[in-house]
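Q: Sequence in, structure out?
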Amino acid sequence: MKINLVSIARKALRNLDIEDLGRNKIKICYKSNYKIAQPKSIVIPKFIKLDEEFSEAIGLYLGDGKLTPFDSTHLEYTTIDEDIGKFMLEFFLNRLNVKTEDITFTIRYRFGKENELRRKWSKILGIPPNRLYIRKLTKYRMRDSISFQINSVIFRKIFQNLVESVLPIIRNKKKLRQAFLRGEFAADGKIGIEKAVNTYYISEISFCYDAKKEIWLRDYIIDILKAEGISNFNVTNGYIRVTNWKNYVKFWKMRLFDKCKRKKDKFLNVVKQMEVRLRLNLRFLRKFLGSTGLSNREIRKIINLHRTNLKRVLNGSQLLKLEQIYKLLQFSSFKWRDVIRNANLLRIGRNTNLRLENDFIHFLLREKNLN
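A: Exactly. Output:
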C-alpha cells in the first residue's frame, strides 16, 4: 500500500511550497509569515510503501523514539541494541531520504573506552568516528547506547503526521499489525523468566508504556493483541503482561522475538532448557517401546526413569519428555515423524497443555538439538 506524502505534508504544515523533482522525490520548503530564519528545506519521497518493514519501524520508534511536544524541532531515536540501531538508521536514510549530515549521532556510556566505543558504533552504522559525539554517564545505564537526532522541524512535523495517519491502517491489516508488535516489542518488550526445579520458564511476556503519557499507546497495543487472539493478559503500572504458552506460541508464529537479537536469544535459551513432554497414543507407545528391543530395565536406565514411573508412562498417566523419546529413537526403527503423527498433546512444564502443531514441535526439536 502506498502513502502519499504530499497530502501528509499539507496536513502537517501550512504555507508549504512543494516542488515535484521527479523519480518519486519532492522538495518541501516552509515559508513563515514572520521575519525570522526559515527552516531548511527537505527532500523526501512523494510516495512511501506501507509494508511490514515500515510497520516494524513505526513500532520501534513509538517504543524508543521521541514525539513529545517539547521536541518539536527534531526527532530522536535511542537504543542499546546494535541491530536495531542499524535498522532504524537505514530506515530513515533509505525509506525517507534523510541525509546523514542532518543527523547528530551521540554515544552514551557508563563503562568502556571512548575510542573503542566510537570504532564499534562507526563500524555498525557506517558513520565516520569523528561524526559520533560521546557522553559519559555516572549512573543508571549499564550498556552503551546510540542515539541519532534528525535536525529538521519540517521533517519532524511530517513524520508525526505520517505516524498518526498510518496507525489505523496498521491496526486493520494482519501482517502490518504483527510487524508493528515486533517493532514495539523489540523496543519496549520484556521476557520475564523465573527458575523452577532444574529448569527455567517464562513467567510473562510484557509490553511497556508510559503510564502517565501513553495511555493511547496502551489501548492501541491492547486492540492489536485482541485482534490477534491474545488472551490472558493484565494491565498494571505501565505494563501489559501476557501469560500462558498458548499466547507465546501465537507470538512465536508472528515472529515477535525476531526483530531484536538480544531478546530472541533470551527466548531461545529458555526454549532449550524448558521441560516439554508429548502424550502419545497408548497403542503406538507400546509398539514404539517394543521396537527398541530393550527390556523395561534397560529402558528405565537409558531414560533415567523409576520403575513406578515407567508403569505410569505405560498407562498414560505420565508423559515422556522430548529428550527421553530422542534417546529411545536411537534404538528404534521409528522416526520423529512417526512419533509426531501418533502424538495428540504437547505439555510445557507441569500444567500447560497445547494442541500439537507440526511447525512448533519441529521448532522445539531443532532448538533442543533433538532432530
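DSSP finds 15 helices and 17 strands in the chain.
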